[in-house]
């Protein structure tokens, strides 16, 4: 008589470790889906924040355009997960780069456009951009890094 706990297969004859790996991939895909949705919401915040804080025209348009881009690109990645497609590594890498731009843009523009005491943005918008840029860059880079397994296998998210 054999011990069933020592047998690596279940009643259907499938390998338990394969089932465990499939469950792990599914949970990873779900995590990336919700992180992509969160990054998309951060992009929406970046786009509307100049209207809530005092900002010069250059900072306003930079935030609106880059924030809308982050919102749409991360939203596209969220949609890909809903439709059982793998994470787009290129899209999330671009979102990470846009997050870095949001992080440095208040300082890059302040040096160029601070003429005759004109400030690019109020302190609230600068800190909002710094925090949103850091969160966007880190989360998008993590999603892209974690999605490498989907790219290598070529499998839809949460399968195999």
TrEMBL record:
Keywords: Membrane, Transmembrane, Transmembrane helix. Residues 34-141 form the SPW repeat-containing integral membrane domain. The keyword Zinc does not apply. Residues 1-28 are annotated as: Disordered. The chain crosses the membrane at residues 34-53, 59-79, 91-113, 125-145. Residues 9-28 have a biased composition (Basic and acidic residues). This is SPW repeat-containing integral membrane domain-containing protein. It comes from Natrarchaeobaculum aegyptiacum. The lineage of its organism: Archaea, Methanobacteriati, Methanobacteriota, Stenosarchaea group, Halobacteria.
């Amino acid at each position: 008589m054999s011990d069933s706990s020592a047998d690596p297969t279940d009643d259907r004859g499938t390998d338990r470790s394969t089932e465990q790996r499939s469950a792990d991939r599914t949970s990873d895909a779900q995590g990336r889906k919700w992180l992509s949705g969160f990054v998309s919401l951060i992009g929406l915040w970046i786009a509307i924040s100049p209207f809530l804080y005092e900002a010069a025209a250059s900072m306003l348009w930079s935030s609106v355009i880059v924030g809308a881009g982050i919102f749409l690109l991360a939203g596209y990645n969220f949609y890909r997960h809903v439709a059982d497609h793998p994470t787009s590594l290129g899209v999330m890498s671009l979102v990470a780069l846009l997050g870095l731009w949001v992080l440095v843009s208040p300082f890059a523009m302040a040096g160029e456009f601070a003429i005759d005491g004109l400030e690019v943005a109020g302190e609230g918008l600068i800190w909002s951009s710094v925090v949103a840029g850091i969160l966007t860059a880190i989360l998008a880079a993590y999603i892209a890094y974690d999605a490498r397994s989907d790219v290598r296998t070529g499998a839809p998210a949460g399968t195999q």
